[in-house]
Protein 1
Amino acid sequence: MVDLHTHDSDGYSRRGFLKSALASAGLITVSQYEAAAQMLGGTGGRDVQGWGVSPGTVQLSGNENALGPSPRAVDAILDTTYSINRYDLAPDLYGNIARRHGLPVVDVTSQFELPADAWLAVGAGSSDILTAIAHAYFGNGGELVEVSPGFGFMARLANQKGLNVVSVPLADDYGPDLVAMQAAITEKTQLVVVTTPGNPNGRLTPISALKPFVESIPSEVLILVDEAYIDFCRQPGDRIGAAPLIADHPNLIVTRTFSKVFGMAGMRVGYALAQPDVINRINENRANTLSILSGYAAAAALKDHDFVRRSQELVHSGKDYFYSQMDALGVEYVRSESSFVLINLRRDVDTVVDTLAKDHDVWVANAKQRWGMDTFIRVTAGLPEENEAFVEAFKKVLVKS
Ligand SMILES: Cc1ncc(COP(=O)(O)O)c(C=O)c1O
């Protein structure tokens, strides 16, 4: 009997191969979507490198989605491939994003004729949108307020544009100190950044704390709420985020990305939600950056509730596994609502990170190099086998160093 679940050497399942072969022989029919889902999902997926005692590459440093992309997105890309000669934009993309956040729905069918009353702007990743915000609003001599350690993307752009970056240290629980952030605002402040859940800290700023904070900020100061990881929050209510505040706050911008829960980092799709005046200024400061493939893939991914659920479950169970393993080892960590966990080794991490990479091919983020957190590493929740490979390697490296 053929073992339909065995994996062959190049990492694709024999089951998938067999089905495709039978399909091409006309013996069974597999839809393009089924083929994508089979390649990407469950036991039909690629073999995970990093299994067992001699791991291959285990990439847990970049906050990417270990499940791969949404199969519905792959299906849409394949469907759209023969139309890349067109400047087309997926017709339901803008409308469905607006509906997702309860914002006014404005039909947008071309990137070249963006209506002036849209409540969202879509770009090539949320970084594209963040860059446009900097171009639109940063003026020499102004100030930016952001936590430190924080994602820091806007702080880097602010430095380039001659702004003074006011860094507010995280509170003792590694969450943002909103009182100190509010106190740091002066008449020079142009932008205040709240990343929730945070990166690298992973802490959620609940809407109960965010709402009064937004209300306390003067209306001439722009507030950016970066919600790149919000879909990983355990409580569905927390995943709503700050969008409902936009109607009352013309100075509020919320950003989201398709790079995390939808597994589409390489497709580069992200968006901003704000009142139309702000959206128009953002659009004036960016090019038509969305490829036809990205647009159709994003529109399809939005409907892939099954994939979103699987991504959330993978991250939740991965973090629970890290927590229990670190508890057993007596190693401290920061509980996170993002897709990764900060782990405190209470020693300089350079050697540990290097040894994990060189001796075990396990890649984690060095929080000392990236955020000046000398004793921390940041580990993204991957597939169970990858998480196990990390923990096994981590134990060995801890004993050695
Ligand atoms: C907090 C945060 N915001 C924004 C981004 C940018 O994501 P993208 O440009 O892929 O949408 C990232 C990427 O890791 C992130 O961590």
Protein 2
Amino acid sequence: MKHNSLEPKLENSLEPKKVSSLEQFIHQAENNWSGLNSDNVNRLKSALTALTQSSPKEPWLAALFNEKPAAKTLYESEQHRFMLLAHHEPADFYRQPHDHGNGWVLYAVLSGTIAMNTYKILTDNNGNEQLVNRGKEVLATGDCRVFLPGDIHHTHCLSDNFMQFRFTSCDFKQEIKSGRMKRF
Ligand SMILES: [Fe+2]
């Protein structure tokens, strides 16, 4: 019988391609993207939370735990401009209160713990502004928090083994460069 080169080879058809949890997340984020709205934010929050539960045996995650990068871009969307990054921070590492410009961001803890304080800028009757702290929340593995444009927080890493995912709606370097992202 003549071999038809267009037919899939039997051995290939018996080996389904293994899709990593990272590829699954990217696929979900890209395919149902609808910008800044409650549905998109909440489905991304669920997907990013699920990504924190990935097996550390997955090669991409094992490499990340081995590398412990201060900042690593795992994915950048050409079409929608969102980014997925991973960050390792040493214990006691502190980021001063800041907003995220016109961007919005999801933080999801992969390992260790971090304290986050959120703030609001209030204007009194005399027109004086002050930054008011809502208090501290400690985030551990599997916790994910959303910060919309204008939301302000500071972070304080509490453990040596801390690693988190940071999903940003755009490249925050542009928010800093443009002066839209503010530190307080
Ligand atoms: Fe932030």
